[in-house]
Description:
The complex is a heterodimer. Chain A is an alpha/beta fold. Chain A has a single domain (7-241), classed as P-loop containing nucleotide triphosphate hydrolases (Rossmann fold). In chain A, 33% of the residues lie in helices and 24% in strands. Chain A has a six-stranded mixed sheet with strand order 6-7-8-3-9-10, with helices on both faces. Chain A has a four-stranded antiparallel sheet with strand order 2-1-4-5, with helices on one face. In chain A, a hairpin with a 6-residue loop joins strand 1 (20-29) and strand 2 (36-46). The longest helix of chain A has 16 residues, at 192-207. Mean pLDDT of chain A is 88; it is low at 1-12 and 240-244. Chain B has two domains: 3-52 and 271-403, no CATH class; 83-258, no CATH class. Chain B is an alpha+beta fold. Chain B contains 13 helices and ten strands. Chain B has helices at residues 3-16, 18-54, 85-91, 131-134, 147-151, 161-166, 210-217, 235-249, 265-308, 310-318, 323-355, 368-395, 398-403; strands spanning 60-65, 100-115, 118-127, 139-142, 156-159, 176-179, 182-190, 205-209, 224-229, 260-264. At the A-B interface, helix 2 and helix 3 of A face helix 1, helix 10, helix 11 and helix 13 of B. The complex binds adenosine-5'-triphosphate and magnesium ion. The site of adenosine-5'-triphosphate has 12 residues of chain A, from strand 2 and helix 1.
Amino acid sequence: MGAPGPAANSSSSHTGRPLVEFQNVWKTYVTGAEPVHALRGVSINIYRGEYISIVGPSGSGKSTFMHILGCLDTPTSGRYLLAGTDVSKMDEEQLAEVRNRRIGFVFQQFHLLPSLTAWRNVELPLVYAGVGRHARKVRALSALEQVGLGNRADHHPNQLSGGQQQRVAVARALVTEPDVVLADEPTGNLDSRASADVLAMFADMHKAGRTIVLITHENDVAAAAERVTRFRDGRFIEPEQAAA
Amino acid sequence: MSFFETLRSGLEAIATHRLRSGLTVLGILIGIAAVILTVGLGEGATASVNSAINALGTNLLIVTPGSSTTGLVRGGFGSADTLTYANAKALANKKDCPDIAGVAPQVQAFATLVAGNNNWTTTVYGSTPQWLSVRGRTMAEGSWFTSADMAHAANVVVLGQTTAVELGLFNPVGQTVNIDNVPFTVEGVLASSGTSSSAQNQDDLAVVPLTTAEEVTGTANVSNIYLQATSQGTLNAADEEATNLLLQLHGITNPTEADFTITTQSSLVSTATSVDKTLTVLLAGIAAISLLVGGIGVMNIMLVSVTERIREIGLRKALGATPGVIRRQFLIEASVLGLAGGLAGAALGIIGAEVIPHFISNKIAISGFATAGAVVVAVAIGIVFGVYPASRAARLAPIEALRSE
Lengths: 244, 405
Ligand SMILES: Nc1ncnc2c1ncn2[C@@H]1O[C@H](COP(=O)(O)OP(=O)(O)OP(=O)(O)O)[C@@H](O)[C@H]1O
Ligand SMILES: [Mg+2]
């Protein structure tokens, strides 16, 4: 309906300010002899409540995009607005708060702390949010309950299967009720059963109104999202082009 | 994140890495205990030598036979028999030596004392009635021998406390003690000098009149002469007067050919102290090296620990930890380890200082300065090398930290 904006794939069903706005974002790594442009002018709007998947070939820059989106890394140039605020203008303290309150990250490698039990891993973001001890435990246990691991709360990561560890990581991403959940190949290390479990959890989250961004290699995984985007050579490609 | 949460998380990290934490604490502990003990050994040696020298009396000059070419403390007594009781009497003459307040010539020899079934070998001194005041001693019981005893070469003896105890004499005054098979009557017992625990025990001795000793030894020579100056300020004058008089009595014109040596008590102290200072510095150097080695160990473990945990730092940052929170967590970890090692090391050092002297003859004096200094240095090493790399890691972008191997 509306005039196509500069951003690729802006969904016409949403109105108002996007939650995430990328405007011509570049990321260049200068490690070797010649610079590697991991992102070449990424522009995208993501709205509150969207479930969007990103597919694309290996090395195309999906993870790099996701890290910048999650404020784990900074762009070389371009603008990134999160809920209307320019992230590049934030100091370390503000960034920490954004990561803590607005973003829930699910990594392909789980990234759980091996020395802590499942529920202590899940409560970690709440520790940094300054939530009291008792409330933390209640919320961590209920998040574990949500991912079906209520009976594994006192297990250490090395006592859990890969699928269970990833579910703990999902619980950790959920527990702060973030604006957006970012998942970088969350099913990459899982078999199809475990993958289906994790995807079912994302579907539940989406129904509950959470914004979800999911990176995947697999088309059937991507299809679970309501909006599928394609990534190639450091940028999103137009849907028509992708379909071609 | 509250201080309590940070403390808890620091303590958890320490508990998680028990072996590494234990090694860190051990490194600090050994370094500090070594510093405390080695410095304490040096200071203990100085203190015991000083107290032994001061127990000889006050404002003393000691005349010994034989010449001293080096001017340093001599190991033994001179071999030349050049000092006599007559010399001592001359030195007591106020006209020639106005700055000498007391003169105590000493003959000394080892002898076996027998009382009842007990016998004990000790140093027997022959001296004049002035010995008591020159050597700064007092009586515990009985009385000191008199000029009359001296004149009659009476067979009377005054015992030191240790000697009396070793002879099993509980009411010694009036009892008979055989010295090399000659019966002596005990006139009194000296009050303790407070050096009974040291190597130079001034309580293990017996004193008889000089005249009696001369009869036994058959010679008029004395082992040495203790002179007491009238005051601290007249020590040099007394030294000069005694030197001139003795040179004259011995018919020596060239002072460099003197056949006696006069040593002041203060020169004894300063020589002994300077020797011990060197010892202390040497020991402190060894201690500093062991602290340094311990510190390098701590530094190593801390660096490894932080490097190993960069991913953890990255994850904590990704979950919302600020660099300040990360720094504080490592600061607490490092301080707890440093303090634990520091306090345990101080405790071990202090316990060692109590226990070790039971096995070796040396005293160990705890130096508060060295103890505090060692603890501060160790804690500082732990903190600097734990917090510095952690705070660098805390400034990395979370993804860089997460990706690091
Ligand atoms: N830290 C880095 N230093 C140098 N180059 C990097 C770095 N991180 C990523 N790159 C490069 O950036 C490009 C994009 O990498 P990225 O990890 O974003 O790809 P991806 O789309 O996630 O791939 P995959 O599907 O295999 O995970 C790659 O060419 C990679 O080599
Ligand atoms: Mg990737």
